[in-house]
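Q: I'm building a small set of examples for a reading group on sequence design. Run inverse folding on the following structure and report the sequence directly after it, with nothing in between.
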């Protein structure tokens, strides 16, 4: 594949001039232009129709106003397709804002909506976005936007920053004043389309009435490109390659090399200001997906007094397009975009699915008041390398476990003597050393075992999920004191602290939230390795790990390694009667 053109540009980020690396995006072209290109030219082009400003009916009862130009405050023009009911009237607007093409799969042609049967979603739907085929028939307009730099929209595309937020503000204020709009706008969509919602909402456009970010990475550094301090550029690069536009894209993997620490303007510009989000929010989070950490943090940090969280086990696409969940979302939008008094406020602030095994839940949509749960009881399970177990009491004798950092692993197991629910944040404290190297990358999975010691995974699309996870590059072990809590350590990523070979250091590893039920006699396992153990898990995730030689894990005595778990006691118990 030919080399992608790269340049360095100075751009405004939160009022500061920052030099960033940008690369040329796939060039939009017509079918005829594509066919006339050489094979090398085709590697850098995507078929997208030329601008064609028209109004037509894609389906009976629905009107599409195609390629509408909208001017931003600095003069740049972006283009949008707007779908609305054919009947005259003023409609609330639901907006999809992302660098996926504004017509189905433009720039994303090979992606499929896994887990969603054919014909569930109409050809009007943008990838991971609200379907006009549903919403227009329920009294809403839908805007599929090509942001700055995408498709035929002018300018360069700077990913997930304040520029995207300001442009979203400008578009919302334009749309709210159109003759077909009732003046109330909402944002919708999952994954990438959810991530942009927080950046736009933080700009506080007056006519943005609510948002529904269903699965949203919100800390690009800690949750996507450098989780645990271990670079993971492949997935973002994979997604970025499909961005199609006439100019350049902010290349975040290359800028991670340019700006390796988080305490700089480049990364700060990509952090949403949750304190400015005060409108109604409906956030979802999948216990088994890469957006989990960001979704939970966004819900916790935003300042809205009208916010709801639904945490579930299913993958984002079948969850987003299921009949039950679409109807639930419609109640939310009807309340805040149509101002219907439909009782939405009685919806529990938090609903969780407590996972059991495979595709089965122990409980579904259990109502709670907050997250983490107020009745959480944090307990410690102490690692013992002498027999690869965990114990409920501190271990007196010191011991050491060793594994090859490239091919090996070590596990520690604990058997529950009674039914136990774990819901919330876990934390792993380890005393570690690299036997003959100056750094070590740790990949941790928290798993459930049967009463006879067999792995009992959660399954999605028939594949075994590795388990609740955590990662750490030990040279990045320093914690951010402001962001960390006793139950949720957060790495600072402001410096490297290399090891001396054999040097023993304590590390606190953040484990993503989970909700899992362990029946009496079942076991919990801590799996530790120098690589991500996933057994063909379908997501194309890869990390640039830095390991050599053996890793050493110390336990017992002065090396009090432990797993801290969030135990949820029953809400009510009377003898053998338990209500959870």
């Amino acid at each position: 594949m030919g080399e992608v053109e790269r340049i360095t540009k100075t751009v405004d980020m939160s009022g500061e001039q920052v030099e960033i690396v940008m690369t040329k995006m796939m060039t939009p072209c017509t079918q005829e232009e594509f066919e006339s290109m050489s094979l090398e030219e085709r590697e850098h082009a995507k078929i997208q129709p030329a601008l064609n400003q028209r109004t037509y009916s894609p389906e009976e009862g629905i009107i599409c106003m195609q390629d509408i130009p909208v001017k931003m405050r600095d003069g740049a023009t972006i283009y949008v397709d707007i779908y609305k009911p054919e009947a005259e009237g003023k409609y609330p607007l639901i907006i999809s804002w992302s660098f996926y093409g504004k017509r189905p799969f433009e720039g994303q042609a090979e992606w499929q909506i896994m887990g969603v049967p054919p014909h569930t979603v109409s050809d009007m739907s943008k990838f991971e976005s609200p379907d006009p085929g549903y919403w227009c028939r329920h009294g809403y307009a839908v805007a599929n936007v090509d942001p700055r730099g995408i498709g035929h929209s002018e300018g360069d595309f700077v990913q997930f920053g304040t520029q995207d937020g300001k442009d979203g503000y400008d578009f919302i204020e334009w749309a709210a004043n159109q003759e077909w709009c009732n003046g109330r706008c909402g944002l919708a969509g999952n994954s990438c389309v959810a991530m942009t919602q927080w950046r736009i909402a933080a700009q506080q456009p007056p006519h943005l009435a609510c948002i529904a970010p269903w699965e949203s990475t919100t800390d690009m550094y800690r949750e996507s490109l450098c989780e645990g301090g271990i670079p993971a550029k492949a997935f973002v690069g994979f997604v970025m390659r499909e961005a199609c536009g006439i100019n350049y894209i902010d290349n975040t993997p290359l800028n991670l090399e340019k700006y390796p620490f988080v305490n700089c303007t480049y990364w700060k510009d990509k952090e949403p200001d949750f304190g400015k989000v005060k409108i109604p929010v409906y956030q979802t989070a999948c216990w088994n997906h890469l957006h989990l950490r960001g979704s939970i943090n966004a819900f916790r940090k935003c300042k809205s007094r009208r916010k709801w969280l639904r945490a579930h086990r299913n993958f984002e696409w079948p969850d987003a397009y299921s009949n039950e969940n679409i109807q639930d979302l419609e109640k939310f939008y009807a309340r805040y975009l149509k101002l219907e008094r439909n009782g939405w406020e009685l919806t529990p602030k938090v609903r969780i699915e407590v996972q059991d095994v495979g595709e089965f839940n122990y409980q579904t949509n259990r109502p709670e008041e907050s997250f983490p749960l107020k009745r959480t009881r944090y307990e410690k399970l102490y690692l013992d390398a002498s027999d690869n177990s965990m114990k409920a009491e501190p271990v007196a004798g010191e011991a050491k476990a060793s594994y090859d950092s490239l091919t090996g692993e070590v596990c520690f197991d604990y058997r529950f003597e009674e039914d136990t629910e774990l819901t919330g944040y876990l934390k792993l404290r380890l005393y570690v050393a690299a036997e003959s190297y100056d750094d070590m990358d740790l990949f941790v999975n928290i798993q459930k075992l049967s009463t006879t010691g067999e792995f009992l995974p959660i399954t999605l699309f028939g594949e075994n999920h590795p388990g609740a996870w955590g990662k750490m590059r030990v040279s990045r072990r320093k914690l951010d004191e402001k962001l960390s809590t006793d139950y949720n350590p957060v790495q600072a990523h402001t410096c490297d602290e290399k090891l001396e070979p054999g040097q023993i250091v304590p590390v606190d590893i953040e484990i993503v939230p989970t909700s899992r039920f362990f029946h009496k006699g079942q076991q919990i396992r801590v799996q530790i390795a120098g690589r991500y153990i996933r057994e063909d898990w379908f997501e194309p995730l890869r990390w640039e790990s830095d390991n050599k030689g053996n890793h050493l894990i110390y336990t017992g005595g002065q090396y009090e390694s432990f797993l801290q778990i969030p135990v949820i006691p029953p809400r009510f118990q009377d003898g053998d009667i338990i209500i959870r």
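DSSP finds twelve helices and 31 strands in the chain.
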